[in-house]
Design brief:
Multidrug-efflux Transporter Regulator, Chain: A, Domain 2; DNA-binding protein; two-stranded antiparallel ribbon; single chain; mainly alpha
Length: 282
């Protein structure tokens, strides 16, 4: 009589470990990197990055090294939600760079476009630093077209008195309006109070941050949770130094707004830490 060999029975811990490994392996296969995600959505990697920035595509948990990953379920949701793919998705993230290209979309001259942007009527979605270390602002093409249809009177005629006053004072709202947009997009990505506080903290000048958050341990938490530089932020040190100036609030009333918002966010974060017994995000 032939004896049948059987595997030794597993204890509960070993069986649970195997089941967890299977679940982790399945979760890993359900996540793909940026290159594959872009290919599945028929986008370039730059277009995918812009879609993530705008909240059109939600990134999944990153790799240990910080590289972005995307859940297949999320890619399927985006494909299902886009009627005219890939052109419809591309139109949502298409940008133009500089006053000349943006003015052509609006059907106006570059000087009028610059006035509209400097006075805060149009909000940049990003920036580049050119080889002369000058800021080149990027605008969503779809937003420019929407503005032209909504505000035809602003595309001709004389500038309003408040615009003329701002220009006479050499004012420029573009950095401020971009910061507001950037912070708003980052805040919409997380509900964690410490992570939200970190978004607000990264906009404040160092001196203001130290006054608003005197506890060094809390500043370390906020620094660890700080969002990475925005898409398009330069790597070359000289250009990066110029771009760094765009990341910090400047006018006193803007600084006050972000500082007040940070203090409010920290109140909620500290309350959460007190209830959980742990300091930092949950």
């Amino acid at each position: 009589m032939t004896q049948m060999m059987t595997a030794p029975p597993q204890d509960g811990a070993a069986r649970a470990g195997q089941e967890a490994a299977v679940r982790a392996d399945g979760a890993g296969r359900a996540l793909v990197g940026s290159a594959q995600a872009a290919g599945e959505l028929d986008l370039t990697r730059g277009e995918l990055a812009r879609a993530v920035q705008l909240g059109i595509v939600r990134a999944g948990p990153p790799t240990a090294g910080g590289a972005a990953r995307f859940a297949r379920a999320e890619l399927a949701r985006v494909r299902a939600a886009t009627a005219d793919r890939p052109d419809g998705l591309r139109r949502q993230v298409e940008t133009v760079a500089g006053a000349q290209a943006a003015a052509e979309v609006l059907g106006v001259g570059p000087s009028r476009f610059t006035r509209l942007a400097r006075c805060g009527h149009l909000t940049p979605v990003g920036y580049r630093i050119n080889r002369y270390r000058a800021v080149v602002w990027l605008y969503l093409t779809a937003e420019l077209r929407e503005f032209a249809g909504r505000e035809p009177l602003m595309l001709r005629g004389t500038a309003p008195a408040e615009d003329r006053e701002l220009l006479a004072a050499r004012g420029d709202m573009r950095p401020r309006t971009w910061r507001g947009r950037h912070v708003g997009l980052l805040l919409r990505r997380t509900a964690d109070p410490w992570a939200r506080a970190a978004v607000l903290a990264c906009v404040l000048p160092e001196g203001e941050l130290r006054e608003a958050v005197p506890d060094p341990a809390e500043r370390l938490i906020l620094a660890a949770l700080a969002p990475p530089p925005p898409y398009g932020h330069p790597q070359v040190p000289a250009a990066a130094a110029v771009a760094e100036g765009l990341l910090r609030a400047g006018p006193p009333d803007e600084v006050h707004w972000y500082r007040t918002s940070l203090e409010f966010a920290l109140t909620g974060a500290r309350r959460q830490s007190k209830s959980t017994g742990e300091r930092g995000p949950t």
